[in-house]
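Take the subject:
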Amino acid sequence: MARPNLSEEKRAKFLPVIAQCFVERGYRRTTTAELAEACGVQETILYRLWPGKKEMFLAAIEYVYQLSARTWQEVQDRSAQGGSRAERLLDYESRHLGEFGLYRIIFAGLSETDDPEIRAALSRMFNGFHREISSRVGEHRRRRKGGSPVDVEQAAWAIVGLGLVANLSRDVKLFGEKKRQSLIAEVGRLLLEGEIA
């Protein structure tokens, strides 16, 4: 009988550790030796799972997206909370956006956009965020049956932009926690309702 392939299970086990290494050291400064040490394995084990450091970084970008998507789904499905799914999402993100530092993987990737694979991975991630937010904004607006001068697609991109600015503010200390929360909650709400024109 053939042995089961445990590669996917190992990738899932190591990916959060690898992502954390990229959060702490960035893409360029992180070595595969450091990644292996953090995972508690030899480099050859990681090379059996991914061809190289870039592929590990690409997997970390996808990990950020998948983790965000799962978290957003859980938040939106909580029926005990009031408001639309979009309102619940904005409320959650105003309090929790960036708390694990995974946005730093995205920022590290932005400095590597000359690489077509990294650029494509970031594009897929941002487009995924945009699709989810657009869907929720559209659903919210249909429920309240009001017209809006702000297009749903544009509002969704603006909300994605709010998230980037809010995360940037953490690293460069642009403003404090209360202002960051307000940015997402209040300006996000205006965009959700379509009141910014």
